[in-house]
Amino acid sequence: MHVQDLIRHIEHHAPPACAASWDRCGVQVAARREAISAVAVTLDPTPAAIQQAIALGCEFLLAHHPVALTAQLPCRLDAYRDTLQAALGGDLWVYSAHTSLDANPDGPAGWLAHALGLSQIQVLEETFRQTPVLGLLPDGRMQDIPQGITPVMAAPGPTGLLLAVWPQDLDALRAIASGPWLEAPLSAPKRTAGIGQVGDLPEPVSWETLRTRLEHWGVPCNRLVGQPPRRITRVAICPGSGASLGRAAFDRGAQVFITGDIKYHDAQALEPLGLTVDAGHFSLEETMMRTWMEILARELAPLGIHVHFIPGHNPIRMG
Q: Residue 202 in 3-state DSSP?
């Protein structure tokens, strides 16, 4: 598989347009090789993960966290320099799908929401909003729609094919237009993406029941802020570091908010609002990347691409 085709496949799950403005998603380290036969998926692009990917025969490493959030020179003997040295020395592509993956609640970032069976899911922090474009493809027929494009609406008309498509599909349609391509933006339906999810449980549960389920899925529940509610009907989740979204979670009716990296002053602000579970930065995102690896392995296997998972390392442990 050509590397650009692989990147397009990755970005179907983690659209760059959905990423937060401060983030550095995309290619972190480029390589000279263009043919990809094996991909490694991991949480952090550490020197150890890069060396393991190379030992597995991978040409491409897909990580969640970026190598760096700001451009910098490798002017110090540190992990950043070691990461670059390992990747460049092994001619390994390194790609980060950070908030571009976080902001797709229908993808791996929503694994816990799906496991809990949440419904009526909303995002906590919107990073992307889109409406379709209405276009007329002159003399067009249904069979002329390029493969990979699923119109929101398609109807034959007297002068061509009337289509409503998402903006990213416009270039492909313009390219096949035999005459003037006419288009106009629509106000609905809206498609949104964002970080964090809040939704309703299938049925009310006690904190003891919810805690048992979370721990079964590997979500630690030994760092709590606030008092457990007697009855839980609505839960909010933000993988990684989500303390800043706590108030939004409780304002939207959640009785429990599950995230990581709750600091002392965060806890003071969140304590009166509901129960916050500080599961740590690692647990939710490690499972998210393992889930994505399994999805990619199923999708890419028919194309002859091998997908490997490199487990991450949680630097924080309970003594």
A: strand
Are 197 and 125 a contacting pair, CB within 8 Å? no
User: From CA 290, how far away is CA 158, in angstroms rounded?
Assistant: 50
Predicted confidence (pLDDT) at residue 96 exceeds the cutoff of 90: yes
- What is d(CA 309, CA 289) in angstroms, rounded to the nearest whole number? 8
Q: Please give the Cα distance from 194 to 213 (Å, whole number).
A: 25
- Rounded distance, CA 101 to CA 14, Å? 4
Is residue 59 within 8 Å of 79, Cβ to Cβ? no
Q: Which two tokens stand for residue 163?
A: 């289509």
Residue matched to tokens 């939710």: 284
282's enclosing H/E stretch is helix 280-300
Pairing of strands 133-138, 119-130: unpaired
Strands (E), 158-231: 160-165, 182-185, 191-205, 224-225
Task: Tell me: pLDDT of 317 over 90.
Answer: no
- Tokens for 164, please give them: 């409503």
- Least Cα distance to 37 among 66, 5, 8, 85 occurs for 5
pLDDT of residue 115: 98
In the chain, the domains with their CATH numbers are 3-100+284-309 (3.40.1390.30), 108-128+193-278 (3.40.1390.30), 132-185 (no CATH)
Q: Give the model's confidence band at 117: pLDDT under 50 very low, under 70 low, under 90 confident, else very high.
A: very high
